[in-house]
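Technical note accompanying the year-one report. For the benefit of new consortium partners, we illustrate the data format agreed upon in the data management plan: each record pairs a sequence with a structure-token string. No post-processing was applied to the example shown here.
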Amino acid sequence: MAAFAEGVPCWADVLLSDLAAGRRFYGELFGWTFQEIATEYGTFTRALLGGKDVAGLVPKPDGRMPTVWNIYFAAQDAAATAVRIREAGGRVITPPVWIDEFCVMATAADPGGAVFGIWQAGSHTGFARRGTPGSYGWAEVHTRQPRAVDAFYRAVFGYGMTPSAPSSAPPSAAPSAPSTAPPSAAPSVPSSTPPPGASPAPSSAEGSPADVVLWTPRGEPPDPRHAIGGRVVMGEEYPAVLPAHFLTYFVVADCDQALRTANRLGGRVLKTAEDTPYGRFAVLADNQGAAFAVIDTSAAG
């Protein structure tokens, strides 16, 4: 039985050119240990915290691919999810495939071009630890096409969506990071119109799409307490060359100390630390350029 409900973020991995350098960086930053796993598609590295799965490190099969953190959403039936993605105006980049007995994986892009993965659990159900220092905390899509993107994720995963005022929203950021999606990741049929039959996108009082929308799984109350991710509008503060993307957050015990450690290890700060109602957060790039965020949730309030 799957450990995660449909559409809940259940795994994250980073695509790297130099796995040894990645292990050194994340091992010291988050306290991870590592285990090599061989599959018929090659070897990947499990990142462990206290012996529990928290993320993956994957070697780039092609040097032209981006150095990027990928987020995966739980799917009860990956093939059916891929059909919904196409019907809702997205693009399936790599079709669902079994990775030994571990899981069925696929990658896709939403109508705005943000790339994400789907994950049908096999023996590997996903995160074994989350929400504590050194583990996954949150994910959000940053897009310039909020209406189409809201309709897309509602159609694909059945999310409930709640507009959130900036003062009460989960942390979001506008890092001046390199591209997190290859050029081929854009949907083959770009669309700014929601698919037929889709509910309208959540809007502000003025009628324009809300700057921040929280996602809740199908069947859960659409409120911040049950939120599992969100959508952020990319405004003028975002560099024009930065494409739509997902930003993955990891929990840390001390945001400022995490920044100092990352800098010492060869990473760089893309957005300096900032306090929000959900905690103190910042956006970083690792020592190979993959962007991610860190958040100290003990500083919430």
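Partners are asked to follow this layout when depositing records. The helical segments are 19-30, 78-87, 146-157, 255-264.
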